[in-house]
Amino acid sequence: MSFSENIKEFVDDLSTWxxxxxxxxxxxxxxxxxxxxxxxxxxxxxxxxxxxxxxxxKIILVAEALGYQGGHFSGIAMTSxxxxxxxxxxxxxxxxFHRTSDKNKxxxxxxxxxxxxxxxxxxVWKTMLEYLSPTDxxxxxxxxxxxxxxxxxxxxxxPSDKELLDAQKYLSRxxxxxxxxxxxxxxxxxAKLQLEELGRKPECVRHPANGGKPEFVEYIKGxxx
Length: 225
What we know:
Blueprint: H1 3-14, E1 22-23, H2 39-52, E2 59-65, H3 71-74, H4 81-86, H5 119-129, E3 137-143, E4 146-147, H6 161-166, H7 168-176, E5 183-187, H8 189-197, E6 203-205, H9 213-224
Parallel strand pairs: 2-3, 2-5, 5-6
Antiparallel strand pairs: 1-4
Helix pairs in contact: 1-2, 5-9
């Protein structure tokens, strides 16, 4: 199969994985917050388009897991719906990337005119675009899905060791799609450990969240300026 076909098959496989207290944005609907029943298909389309455009990526960034402000609704790691607007045409063509949250379905806190924005995604995109073209690097997560607290879908939690192990096959398959990537960066220790378990030797940088932004920015600047 072609690269494009392999990506489509991969995303279809991702959509079939389910686990308690984990949201699968490509296979499940967030009934409280999605814009409609077509939201999972739109998120699959978002991810397929994103991955297909990066066949020749030179750098892979791997963080821990999807967050409710980012991939939960965008379908893309370390990327929020607001990034679709921030980088329209430069990165995200309007016809290929779609928001899936419904500002009219949730409480006041979540009625965001232009969609969700995620602190991690904001730092990553802004920093990387200063030194690289949009298709030079690709974002992913050690745990591809969104782990949340019990019955609180708009929360984040750390994936358990069992969850990481159960979903490790997706990380392994993802890495195989990009053999030309010469730089593999683990964002945080969880990602580093998962990559090392797969026999990889990633560089490691602090996660931009929880006070790690200055170190992340300095690392990227020193590496790619």
